[in-house]
Write a structure and sequence with these properties.
This protein has helices spanning 38-46, 88-103, 123-134, 151-164, 184-197; strands at 8-14, 27-32, 64-69, 73-77, 110-116, 139-144, 172-175. The protein is α/β, with parallel strands linked by helices. The structure holds guanosine-5'-triphosphate and magnesium ion.
Length: 198
């Protein structure tokens, strides 16, 4: 019964699509700009700081890294897009891997699309949401690093974001802090409910 996020293990890595796991276990993809906190969120959900590699230097995750959650879910930690300091070649390779992942026809259950609460959504965020809306890909929007804002600032920012971003009707929004462990139970429960019910 239930999904034990604490029982999360590294499954493996893939540097291209052929290396991605072939399995029927539902897959949840973490997407979002480099440095937004994808790997930190994996660790926070699993309550294990040593699981995914986190770095203050953007571009830490250069492969798709898979985690097995309790034998019931796969979490795919994608390389972040828009890594400003990478060379053009490296940048294109990252973007290509992310893009390919979405157009490959690979089946995934849900996307967690992360946006740093402090910054306006990027062109890539807007493009990604359009793509998911257009292709009816289910997603949750996860606003990260909310420890950096007061409650009032947070609400103001969410209001601003809702003017810029075109969320689809059943998109769920979450504000989390991996650092201060805020909003994690809500997100775990929503993931679990979504995976078990759909
Ligand atoms: N204050 C704060 N900092 C955070 C939080 N989550 C992540 N960070 C910091 O943000 C930086 C990037 O975190 P990562 O988890 O490595 O980000 P990522 O999205 O996996 O980055 P790439 O692998 O480059 O795509 C690190 O310095 C983290 O410590 C948070 O909730 N609050
Ligand atoms: Mg990462």
């Amino acid at each position: 019964m239930g999904i034990q996020f604490r029982n999360t293990k590294l499954w493996g890595v893939a540097s291209d699509l052929s290396g991605c796991p072939k399995t029927d276990i539902p897959e949840i993809v973490l997407s979002g700009k480099s440095n937004v906190g994808k790997s930190s969120l994996v660790n926070a959900l699993a309550d294990n700081r040593k699981l995914a590699r986190v770095s203050a230097t953007p571009g830490k995750t250069r492969l798709v890294v898979y985690f097995d959650v309790d034998g019931k879910l796969l979490l795919a930690d994608l390389p972040g897009y828009g890594y400003a300091k990478a060379s053009k070649d490296v940048k294109e390779k990252f973007n290509k891997l992310c893009d390919q992942y979405f157009v490959s026809g690979r089946k995934f259950k849900l996307v967690l699309h992360l946006i740093d609460i402090r910054h306006a959504p990027s062109e890539d965020d807007i493009r990604m949401l359009e793509y998911m809306n257009h292709n009816a890909i289910p997603y949750f929007l996860v606003f990260t690093k909310c420890d950096k804002f007061s409650r009032a600032q947070l609400n103001r920012q969410l209001e601003e974001f809702s003017k810029i971003l075109d969320f689809h009707d059943d998109a769920h929004c979450f504000a989390v802090s991996a650092e201060k462990k805020v909003g994690l139970d809500d997100l775990r429960q929503a993931i679990e409910a979504y995976v078990l019910e759909s």
